[in-house]
Write a structure and sequence with these properties.
With 512 residues, the protein is of the alpha/beta class. The strands form nine sheets. The protein has an eight-stranded parallel barrel, surrounded by six helices. Strands 17-18-19-26 form a four-stranded antiparallel β-sheet, covered by helices on one side. α5 crosses α6. It starts with a helix and ends in a 5-residue tail after the last strand. The structure holds ligand 5J7 and calcium ion (CA). The site of calcium ion (CA) has 5 residues, from loops.
Length: 512
Amino acid sequence: MKLLGLVALFALSFAQHDPHMKHGRTSIVHLFEWRWADIAVECERYLAPNGFGGVQISPPCENIVLTNPWQPWWQRYQPISYNLCSRSGTEEELSDMITRCNDVGVNVYVDAVINHMCGASGGKGHHSSCGSYFNAENKDFPSVPYSYWDFNEGKCKTSSGDIESYQDIFQIRDCRLVSLLDLALEKDYVRGKVAQYMNKLIDIGVAGFRMDACKHMWPADLSAVYDKLHNLSSKWFPSDSRPFIYQEVIDLGGEAIQVKEYYDMGRVTEFKYSAKLGTVVRRWEKEKMSYLKNWGEGWAFMPSDKALVFVDNHDNQRGHGAGGASVLTFWDARLYKMAMGFMLAHPYGVTRVMSSYRWDRLFQNGKDLNDWMGPPSHSNGSTKSVPINPDTTCGDGWVCEHRWRQIRNMVKFRNVVNGQPYSNWWDNGNNQIAFGRGDRGFIVINNDDWDLNETLNTGLPAGIYCDVISGDKLNGQCSGKQLKVGGDRRAQFHISNTDEDPFIAVHIDSKL
Ligand code: 5J7
Ligand code: CA
């Protein structure tokens, strides 16, 4: 009996770290600001066929509609109620999308904003995405309902009521983050309302949550909310499946709050991964690719089984948030693809692929004045849908990094090598590296300013392989470079530093 209890406790405490992906799939794609109707078709026509395990969606709840600046992306991080309407679509469209993605084995993870509601200066009226009335001055949100008593008034000791120091854990958790009205998550009523919102989403089929701004919530309060959550819908998931939880905690060191406080309840975003990988691939601060040999815990990152990793996210790709200028994005496409290739080949963490929209960058004194811009939209403010070009890329300002051949094929690579050991590392002491994943995959990267010419042990069975970076294996034919692996598992690599993509990746499914 006692033992059973212990086993149950053990199972429970790690259950929320499992993304429950189907068919051996391993990566999540963040379709930032996409409309639900577009995500539904993307699941069916692209994500499922190409082995994406899940999609992270923008906050589906009702949010404030701002006019200065005009409808910025961050308005979706200022909830007005838990009604399910936003510029991504209606509740019906959301529910239809979740059903259709689940039906093709693609999980849906919801960006959940539960630390706060809108800003204290958000005014009053009906300027909200479902048209619900609210009054930010009185802290009145009748569509939830929340009133004055549901916010952290009195608890916060700063004169402004806002967070003033990131060295004081009480300020960080109990004061307003940049004036956003801070919910009193120690109240059972507030926990109940938040859990009701999340349970509604679980019941219509979502597989988990990206928890926004967890640094600003007490771990015990989060734990109490998670304990109220239902198991995943038995329509699509095994019975007793817990929701996958990944918590956004930005910890680059130097602040009072550390990621380790959140490990027990779910996974945690590893922002050091994004910041450091950008620094290495850019070769800043005397970093070299060869130093990546002990990437992961060896770089003082969190344990791999706690980590959710990414090259960039919606926040740090526009210079907000952690990592600063080192973070690689689609704007630096050549280096970005190389970093994505490395991440997806490397066994550390659960990987998330960013899928962005373009905006008009306008730098002044090193700051992008247009970093606020929302998604491609019509003149009435509604979000444009994502058109697909004949060459499978996206139009109308949607970048669709997840559709870039190099990235799409590395998502598949990660599925193919899943569970295989990190093996056969090689480097030239500089910026040329190679490693494999057991006997199922091998990647070689040349980030030096000269050619790579090496014969390396790939770990792969003998045969001719198709490089999935320069091309595709289609109907037994290779449209890119071919690689011959001998009976001794060795192969000769040549990668010019002037190649469009100076890296090569092969795996057991790309064998011709
Ligand atoms: C919180 C952190 O603890 C942190 O380390 C960080 O890098 C960013 C944030 C942060 O999180 C938010 C979460 C939300 O749900 C909503 C938010 O508005 C924020 C948020 O604003 C925020 O911090 C912004 O970015 C930091 C780099 C700055 O240091 C902060 O001052 C703050 O900047 C503010 O951004 C400006 O001061 C203010 O004038 C402006 O109106 C506001 C615009 O909103 C955002 O930029 C939203 C950012 C955001 C970040 C996230 O990580 C996220 O998940 C969602 C939104
Ligand atoms: Ca808080």
